[in-house]
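Table 4 source record.
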Amino acid sequence: MVTLQQTTPLDPSYLESLGFVWHTDSDESSYISDRLVCITEAEAEAYYEATNSLYEMYIEAAEYVIENNLFHEIGIPFNLVELIKESWEHDVHWHLYGRFDLAGGIDGKPIKLLEFNADTPTALFETAIIQWAMLKQNNLEEESQFNTLYESLVENFKRLVVLEEDTESFEEQYEGWKFLFTSIKDNPEEEQTVRLLQHIATEAGFETEFAYIDEIEFSNEEGIFYHDEPYELWFKLIPWEDIALEESDLAMILTHIIQNQKAIIFNPAYTLLFQSKGLLKILWDLYPNHPLLLESSFAPLRGQKQVKKPIFGREGESVSILDENTQPIQSNGGEYDNHKMVYQAYTQLPQDSEGLSYQAGVFYAYEACGLGFRKGSKILDNMSKFVGHLVK
């Protein structure tokens, strides 16, 4: 049973003063849980070690895909392959941050990888800012978390320049590069998340600007422009697969921009390899029966309960839990029904006294650096709640 601690909920007006405006779900319930998941220091350390190990395994798996030309097998759009290769081969294309979704880790259950949101992970604002506010407003010890996400992002922004662990030489090496941060219009959650990242980059020492995607100009030969000003660094909270499928001309232009060394894009194109749930199958091939992995395949698994999910999908859409005979037990509809599917062995998430399931999310920015939880039904969807944590 998940151990929880009751807190006084944060007032919506206070949340909005922090820039957090998506605090209420469509059914008028609070998106932020008023309880905290209690974990031990040993459990926090286990999340840290597991996430760091998984990242190294993802690097090996991505290298295997590139060397063996398995892009099609894991669902990578053909018009991003050259861009992925280009970004993979040069260190300047630094992975800024991602979020691992993990089962277990509490209530005595082993940690198991569910997937890696490596390109455009959500819950950044919640993990980095709201958890801290929950502890502060409830007079709890603010250091009692596995959560250095904000500080880790400051350091990792500096590594975009120094390209090494030690960031002491950032100010000497930084040459006044302009950093453009972008989201789509009319999506407050995405915009505020991008503006938070812009704020962190500014704190790190960059000259930054914000623009909506439709305000930016792209040129094969000249690079990325906003108000006729060129930008060498560009962060976009727009999934690479969406660019490939819905903006194929832009995908081609961005490939030329990278090849001509006119800009560096974050997160880099190779994070789409990590993002693809098809890589779960590659991981199982490379590390069969690894204690952090669940058996995964592109064909239904024989004789065991399993989860069928699209290799590119979000918010639990088009996900099904299947029984040992591959018959659906529980299913979510969605817009990804026609996508290629991966089948992953089922593992039950830790539950509370009400039968709600808890999934850990651990952010990675050069190393594992921030934990948060989501709770909901067996298939977590866009009505799941964010739950903070407390290390006791």
